[in-house]
Amino acid sequence: MMRERADALMATGAEVKKVSGHCTAQQQRNIALCCRIQEVYTTLGLLAHKLDDQGARDTLSNTLESLKEVSSEAVAPIFRSMLEMLEESIVHIQEENFTKRGGSESGDTVSIYLSDLLMKISHCRAEYLSKFKTESSNRSIANEMVNSLITKLAGRVLEVYVEFARKIRPEDGPGRTCLANDMKQIEGAIGKALCPLESIGKPYEEFKAFREGLPLASP
Question: Do you know which PANTHER family this protein is assigned to (predicted)?
Fold first, then answer.
């Protein structure tokens, strides 16, 4: 019953997937629905632990899983679109001349791809992620699913970046240092706007290892 009602309240359509501008009314509706479901999930989850009857506990556990699924489905299009938007910026790293930037004596190291990527990471936080708020007394539990989606988003961004960075790895020292500095800025942006870097796990470890190895790499 709860699942059916949540499905009926969920907004669908093209407006749910657009993330280049302001958070739309449909997106705010789904984010609010996600947060509300998470609050219910938390309350019922605490109740489930207190039940003595195994049958009742199993029934409630099934309900909780269903709620978790619909909560994720409500905001999945937003997270997919945010990832696609960030990937579009990363792709342009292939057009970057790191050797020229790294050897610039004028100090002109402006990078269009990097500026665009950092701006979009900040945009994700300002327009979307900041909208995920719960009123539960136990926020850590209520936000568990959302935090998982954000961490997954951050991890995938780092993975995609390394994939492209490996293809264009500069051969000269200044160019490698320039790329490493770009990666430091990306780390900072993700840590500030998305999630703690340590929570990302393996994707961040590989990203960091690649960055730290750049200045030492041989042509």
Answer: CONSERVED OLIGOMERIC GOLGI COMPLEX COMPONENT 5 (PTHR13228), CONSERVED OLIGOMERIC GOLGI COMPLEX SUBUNIT 5 (PTHR13228:SF3)
